[in-house]
Design brief:
By secondary structure, the chain is mostly helical. It is 69% helix and 1% strand.
């Protein structure tokens, strides 16, 4: 049963690691992977000397931290609310509706929200009717990140609840029965039983998010990024897309990817160590 999963990770995760050596080469398509000229750390030095390096680093950190701060608790809160819903005739259709946005491509989602949030779109018409706006949500540096993160939460919040709902189903009902006998309210039961029981899943998911702190959803960013907000919306992934795919600087873009991976590994190690010492839970 494990063979398909192992084959997937070996083929698409481990074998491509060999290609990281081009980060230390001036890779030439005709000379190949093992015959291109070695340049050591030159591409990393070029990255650190790039005029907008710290702007891109700042934008990537802000997007990652805001996504964790606002986006990570959202599926947990939704799962807790759905778990408290006793009307099954309403609960199951509601779950299905919340899952559906996950299956829409970012091209579709980008088109929908680009029209909704346009200066002359439906959202600004509603704001105009109540004496507010219009606001250029996707063309204003002050609102761009908040808008992008909110759209991402809307799209993925239902899918993210699946793990938490599965963990909730594994909690022993007798714990709630005993708490009810002792006079504990629903809020108290959530605080004293539900959240501690979910803690292993919460910690693992949080550590995985921290390890990918500098990763952005490239499809989402490419759909919404525009020249008006490049000062706050240009992140490592969009920069890699520009210099790697559009400008064919394969070695340089690979060096950026390796840099991101090293930062993610350091953050994961630090947060996992902290988690083991404070909660006893971790990914290793």
């Amino acid at each position: 049963m494990a063979i398909p999963g192992l084959a997937y990770f070996f083929t698409f995760k481990y074998i491509p690691l060999v290609g990281n050596i081009i980060a230390f080469q001036n890779y030439n398509l005709f000379q190949g992977l093992f015959h291109s000229k070695w340049v050591g750390l030159d591409h990393f030095l070029t990255l650190f000397r790039y005029d907008d390096f710290w702007i891109i680093m700042r934008n990537s950190l802000k997007l990652g931290l805001y996504s964790i701060f606002f986006g990570f608790p959202a599926p947990l809160v939704l799962a807790l609310l759905l778990n408290e819903l006793r009307a099954m005739w309403l609960k199951r259709p509601l779950q299905t509706m919340l899952y559906l946005p996950h299956f829409l491509s970012w091209v579709i989602v980008g088109g929908i929200f680009s029209n909704l949030l346009d200066v002359k779109g439906w959202m600004n018409q509603m704001l105009h009717n109540v004496g507010l706006g219009p606001y250029d949500f996707l063309g204003n540096s002050a609102t761009f990140l908040g808008t992008v993160i909110s759209i991402s939460i809307w799209k993925e919040i239902g899918w993210g609840t699946i793990i938490y709902l599965a963990a909730l189903a594994g909690i022993n009902p007798s714990l709630y029965e005993a708490a009810t006998v002792d006079g504990a309210s629903r809020i108290r039961q959530i605080w004293s039983i539900t959240l501690p029981s979910l803690m292993p899943a919460i910690i693992v998911l949080l550590l995985l998010r921290v390890g990918n702190l500098l990763d952005a959803n490239i499809e989402q960013m490419l759909m919404f990024l525009n020249p008006l907000v490049r000062d706050v919306g240009e992140v490592f992934d969009t920069y890699i897309y520009r210099v790697g795919l559009l400008d064919s600087q394969y070695s340089y873009s690979t060096a950026i990817g390796v840099f991101k991976s090293v930062i993610g590994l350091i953050l994961l190690t630090l947060v996992n160590t902290l988690s083991k010492k404070t909660t006893g839970e971790g990914v290793y």
